[in-house]
Amino acid sequence: MRTEAIAAVAVASSPQARRRRFSPYILTVAFAPLIYAIWWLATSTRFVSPILLPAPQAVWNSFPRVVFADGFGEQVLRTLSEIVGGFLLGATIGFALGMLLSSSSRLRAAYLPALSALEAIPTVILAPIIIAWVGFGVEGKIMQAALACFYAVFITTLSGLGLAEPNAVNLMRSLGASKWQTMTKLRIPTALPVIFGGLQLGATTAIIGAIVSEFIGSTGGLGYLMIRYRGSFDTAAYWVIIFFFLAIGLATYLLIWYIEKKVVFWRRTDITRPDLEKQ
Amino acid sequence: MTITKPMHRLRPTRGRRPSAEKMDSGPVWISIATIAVVLLLWEFIPQTGLINRVLFPTFTETLAGFVQLVTSGYWWDDLGKTMIAVAIAWTIGVTFGFTMGVVLGTSPFIRTAITPYAIAVQALPKVVLAPLLIGWLGFGSESKIALAVIICFFPVWIDTMVGLALPAANEFKLMQSLKATRWQIFVKLQLPSAIPMIMVGVKHSLLLAFTGVLVAEILAASDGGLGKLAKEFASQLNMPLTYSVVGIVVILAVTLVSIADVVERRVVFWSEESRTRRRS
Q1: Which of B15, B135, B253 sits opposite A121 (nearest CB)?
Q2: Chain B partners of A212 at a C-beta cutoff of 8 Å?
Q3: Preferred mutation among A225, A235, A275, A279 to probe B, highest tally of B CBs within 10 A
Q4: I need a labelling partner for B157 at 20 to 30 A (CA). Which of A9, A105, B165, B251 fits?
Q5: What pLDDT score was predicted for residue A104?
């Protein structure tokens, strides 16, 4: 998963890094006021159009107005339930299909080419169809989010289940383990770190699917609010909701990371490259 | 240090593929039978009246819609607008992402310092900016391109940054002990080992650029494009044409990815991954 890759590289000590006397995170902290200053300068000099980006002060001042507006909590809940519902649905289907295909090489040979092509499809193009099918309600958003996140979980499950050492599989067999026992005691535990990588990516794409679907047509939710605020040129309120989405994105990432740490407690390295490990 | 492979490009590993001698004709028949069954169901279920015929036209009706679409004059214009926007946005996004990756990735110190910001940028679903960009730049191709660039530069940036850090500490030390300059280390060590990784980002960003353009087109594009076509046909409940547009987008996306795969194998012929892939 990308974020872990960034983190892994950041932590990796290269010869240059070890010679430093002070922590690079001092620079991280120093960046925050710098970004704020650039934001402030860009907006106060009108270098960036206020239609696109309002002054930081304006966004800050709009927070209570947006958050305490009537029904804001309901809209947040609606969007969250779309994301969670879509993610659970898509991840379950992806996991089940990955399990099914990993169980038979015939099925893999028959269906994998077609399923691999799904990777290339921009799922947003299906949004107009979904709206035509089920309308502007929550179900459509859940379908869209599920479609967006299904592939990542499917392909990571399939690759992860193939990672078990042939020797370990043979050992299980020679000890008289059933197929089911090999699956639950060997294959799935080996696959979990990879699957969690897929879940991380799937969560990100599920959020995107839900938002895009709300933008295109909805009767509620944060995306609906954003379209309304933009319609009244209330860009400051719009940016408040952008920060909400940033918070949702970070919270999802941390939540899945935490669950992974609890579930895959025996493994500290986050996600490895299965194709490199094989060599 | 384990370097993670971005999951979106994760393909089933070699070991799981049936080897050539084990291949029998069974799977081919399963594929053909599945396609036949799906097409038959698609053709006959709508006729039974169990499901809404308007929303789910039969296969032949959809095929007729496809022919109608590709023989009509207007759709070439929309196809061209989408593809040109994707090409421009992708070029800008890759250039920008690569530059950012090099500027911020060559120094481990800066790389570590900006990591939290990179994670924040990653966590923000960047499509939230779509309505703002459309409001600012109008309904033309500028807003499409702007959104696609914002969405697609990110993987190139990160993969460049990760790739430049791939060489082991010993390799850096060897270069330094041979009195290599920073530039030489960059050109002869870091860049060659980074390029396979960067290519992965470049391929992913192609798909993201496509997605970005389609999102902008579906949301608002009086300018035209495949996304607008799909949305308009769907709102007219002209489902055969809607499915045809979606089918064309799918074919385009799969073709683009296949071309990118071929190009990647040519460009990074030295990478372990492409070598194993050619062998298999």
Answers
A1: B253
A2: 127, 130, 215, 218
A3: A275
A4: B251
A5: 83
pLDDT score at B222: 67
CB contacts, 8 Å: B190 with chain A: none
Strand, coil or helix: what is B64?
helix
Distance CA A157, CA A192 (A): 8
d(CA A136, CA A122): 20
Task: Please tell me which residue of chain B has the smallest CA distance to A277.
Answer: B2
Are B149 and B206 contacting, i.e. CB atoms less than 8 angstroms apart? no
Tell me the chain B residues in contact with residue A253 when contact means C-beta distances shorter than 8 Å: 119, 123
How many angstroms separate the CA atoms of B260 and B172, rounded? 31
- B236 interface with A at CB cutoff 8 Å: no
Asked if B276 and A279 come within 8 Å (Cβ–Cβ), the reply is yes
- pLDDT confidence band for A103 (50 / 70 / 90): confident
What type of residue sits at position A43? T
Choose among B27, B55, B125: nearest Cβ to A245.
Answer: B125
The 10s digit of each residue's pLDDT in B181-231 is 888 888 888 888 888 889 989 999 999 999 999 999 998 866 788 999 898
Torsion, Cα A45 A48 A237 B227, to 10 degrees, reads 170
Domains within chain A, CATH numbers bracketed:
71-274 (1.10.3720.10)
Q: Dihedral sign for Cα A15, A16, A22, A28, please.
A: negative
Give the ranges where chain B is alpha helix by DSSP (H).
26-48, 59-71, 74-105, 108-123, 130-137, 141-164, 169-177, 182-184, 191-219, 226-235, 239-267, 272-279
Confidence grade of residue A270 (pLDDT, cut at 50, 70, 90): very low
DSSP secondary structure string for all residues of A170-187: HHHHHTT--HHHHIIIII
Q: What is the pLDDT of residue A84?
A: 96
> Which residues of chain A are within 8 Å of residue B108 when distances are taken between CB atoms?
12, 14, 16-17
Selecting from A26, A31, A127 the residue whose C-beta is nearest the C-beta of B218 gives: A127
Q: For residue range B140-196, what is the model confidence (pLDDT) as tens digits?
A: 888 999 999 999 999 999 899 888 888 777 888 888 889 888 888 888 888 888 888
Distance of residue B38 Cα from the nearest chain A Cα, in angstroms: 13
pLDDT digits (tens, 9 = 90+) for B248-260: 999 999 999 889 8
Six-digit token string for A141: 């958003």
pTM of the model: 0.83
